[in-house]
Design goal:
single chain; mainly beta; Jelly Rolls; six-stranded antiparallel beta sheet; five-stranded antiparallel beta sheet; 2 helices; 13 strands; about 5% helix; globular
Amino acid sequence: MEIIPTNISDVLLLKPEVYEDDRGFFLETFRVEHLAKQGVDVRFVQDNLSKSQKNTVRGLHYQIEQQQDKLLMAMQGTILDVAVDLRRDSDTFGQHVATELSADNKHQLFIPKGFGHGFSVLSDSALVYYKCSDYYYPEGERGLFWNDPELNIDWKVRDPIISEKDQQQPKLNEIPKKDLF
């Protein structure tokens, strides 16, 4: 597996080795030692699966309690996966990584604790599978306004479909310091 640091070095792009033949393909989606070689010590405890239609934007979400490292992949379709650095002492605070994950390219994105996360659906629909290093804890969930001009994220969708909750999240400069990392 090839692991590539992104423009925010703690966010990693994983490109698994894919073995294809006339029957289909095989790939290893996770091996703890691959991330350990990158200095990432993680134990995943929860797996999630999300299905969304074209132009859906989910996020930006993060947890201030029971924070989660995440490893994501698109099992069907194509998404633009986005991670926003919310670590206030980081040189890349407020910057983001955006990368296309698809069933075709089979890439994955590792997003560590301290980042807001979201994705948009670029294909007709998408199935997104992700591993989390802690259990979902609704009381600790927070959000960031998906279209904050300060973030300048090009979600690559027209007429985005966004939940009411995500439409009402604060902008980066409105988030209380206690809700940052």
